[in-house]
Amino acid sequence: MNPVARMKSGALPSQTDAAPGFHPGYEEALLTVTDLVKHYRLPRESLLSPPPIVHALQGVSFTLEAGRSLGIVGESGSGKSTLARLVMALEAPTSGRVTLLGRDLHALPHRELREARRDFQMVFQDPYGSLDPRQRVQQIVTEPLPPLPVRERRQRVAEALDAVGLRPADADKYPHEFSGGQRQRIAIARALITRPKLIVADEPVSALDVSVQAQVLNLMQDLRAEFGIAFLFISHDLAVVDHLCDEVAVMQAGRIVERGTPERLFRHAEHPYTRALIDAVPQPGTPGRRALRAGGASSRVASTFPDQESPR
Ligand code: ADP
Ligand code: MG
Q1: SS3 for 174?
Q2: Would you give the end-to-end CA distance of the chain in angstroms?
Q3: Which has more pLDDT, 23 or 191?
Q4: What pLDDT is attached to residue 23?
Q5: Contact 304 CB / ligand 1 (< 6 Å)
Q6: Is the CB of 40 within 6 Å of ligand 1?
Q7: Residue 240: exposed, middle, or buried by beta-carbon count in 10 A (0-12, 13-18, 19+)?
Q8: What are the tens digits of pLDDT across the range 211-239?
């Protein structure tokens, strides 16, 4: 079996996965988020005043089916990253539930959560800060894997690098030897290596040059088609989610105020906040941005700089 076919077979949802906390019927949705609330208590401003509380999430609910992609958009401070951290079980909610493959993530014992983590991985915004500069790509990419025989580990690295358009020889290099777009490919390879069912990507192209954004977006689009991975794709940029997502949820002040297909939202947004977001999208000033806007949900993003950073 070739590497891609092997990863593909490994990425198929396992319907017999009788994990702890398993509930029959989970196949209805891969991910269910129920009434998620997160409050942050800030330091007191004075001895007598109560600590101010930030209501980062005020009751967020949604479902995501296997292999689908949901975009989360909203202005800065609307709670998108908080939602991502809670879905990833990196932080506990004040109340509410996150259920993945029938398992209530925030109720799982530590060891089971560690195992469950293989089913969901994250790609962060900053491809510079999120890779340890002292580690070789091989080490970085295998970090989420359980202990495996050396040969299998090497094989998995080669498959993951191949899937993101990098070379097997790149495994021995350090992050500083790569450009921003290539680093984000390394981060995506790390997310892929466990053959997850869900990837949460928080502003994954915001730190990249417009000229390479399209290539990274196309890569994620291809991976979704190839491996059937579901994406929760967070962006402040409507043009990005328009291209990549089956559906978009609009967040404002810790709540989802509207959800729909990108086409519907762009044409007939019902909520005034959605309208305001759409109106705030910068009109084509740069060729890359125009290409994104023209992309549409099902087409590939046209890269206006084909020679830069093309996958090797
Ligand atoms: P977004 O990703 O949409 O920009 P965030 O989820 O980062 O929004 O933030 C939502 C709100 O929660 C903001 O008001 C932010 O200041 C606050 N917030 C986020 N994380 C923390 C934290 N660890 N401590 C205190 N406040 C936080
Ligand atoms: Mg954020």
Answers
A1: coil
A2: 22
A3: 191
A4: 45
A5: no
A6: yes
A7: buried
A8: 899 999 999 999 999 999 999 999 988 88
Over residues 31-59, mean pLDDT: 94
Residue burial 31-68, b: 16+ Cβ < 10 Å; e: rest: bbbbebbbeeeeeeeeeeeeeeeeebbbebebebebbb
- Beta-carbon neighbours within 5 Å of ion ligand 2: 80-81
Q: Which atom of ligand 1 is nearest to the CA of 38?
A: 12
Nearest atom, ligand 1, residue 202 CA: 2
Structure tokens at 220: 């994620």
CA 128, CA 147: separation in Å to the nearest integer? Answer: 26
Tens digit of each residue's pLDDT (9 = 90 or more) over 77-97:
999 999 999 999 999 999 999
- Residue 143 is classified by DSSP as T
User: What is the overall mean pLDDT for the chain?
Assistant: 84
Say how many residues make up the chain: 312
Q: Collapsing DSSP states into helix, strand and coil, what is residue 117? A: helix
Residue 132 tokens read as 């340890």
- Which segments within the chain are labelled E, that is strand? 31-41, 53-64, 69-73, 95-100, 103-104, 120-123, 198-202, 230-234, 247-252, 255-260
Pairing type for strands 255-260 and 53-64 reads unpaired
Q: What is the pTM of this model?
A: 0.83
Ligand 1 within 6 A of 74 CB?
A: yes
Least confident of 116-125, 239-248, 253-262: 239-248
